[in-house]
Amino acid sequence: MTRLFGLFVTVTLLAALVSAAAAEELPWKPGQPQEPAAPDQNQEATPQKEGGVDLKEALSPEVYQRAIQPILVQIGQAEKVLALYDKEMAKEEKARNEKRAIGYRLSAARFYLAASQQARQKKNLIKEADLQAAVTAQYEVPMRDKAVGIYLTLAQEAMDKNDLKAAIEYYQQALKIDPENAVAKEELTKLAELAKQHAAQGAGGQTAGSGAKDETAQESIRRSAQDYQEKHQYDDHKPSDYQERSDRSKKY
After folding, report:
1. Where are the domains of the chain?
2. Deepest in the core among 52, 67, 89, 183, taking most CB within 10 A?
């Protein structure tokens, strides 16, 4: 009888363990890494709160749908492509596609910038000044800063690879979005001086009749730096001015 009772207890415990494992519905086998979930094509970001203001609660459903939902869609798209970037970077180094990884981050920067622009435009649909300020604090400024941060990171990575032309372009993009960005200003000034040195060292290095197509890398860098100086020497434009220029040159 004691042996039968012990057997009954063992079977009961095994059944409980199997039921618990089934309830968890583990999508991978024990000991194997979890596969990342595929991004939701309709992914939207979670609403943010700043200063205790819950815009979803404070706004009417109609105003929230018109003013905030478009912002969340853009943020969700940014987060989706960043998830793809993380998945790319999780591969072994030799298997990574560097251009694709950069492309994901550039797309994310554009989506974040679009979210910031949406916030700036759509907050005008809200009458209350304090709720407009909440939209600025929760979405307009942070999303702009995220876009700038991506460009600054890409610029630094380009510098590490001694790709000065790409670094200048990324810093210029950051400065177009945030004209007062101290990092972009400082680094572009340094690059302009470096470009002058390269141009001086390479003077006379081109053969006669080589033409514009045979322009040296140093000259290309110098031209980019010179363009930056000419455009920003007396430039007092605001971040909001960037959208008009951006819409003419790029499609998001």
Report:
1. 35-145, 162-201+215-237
2. 67
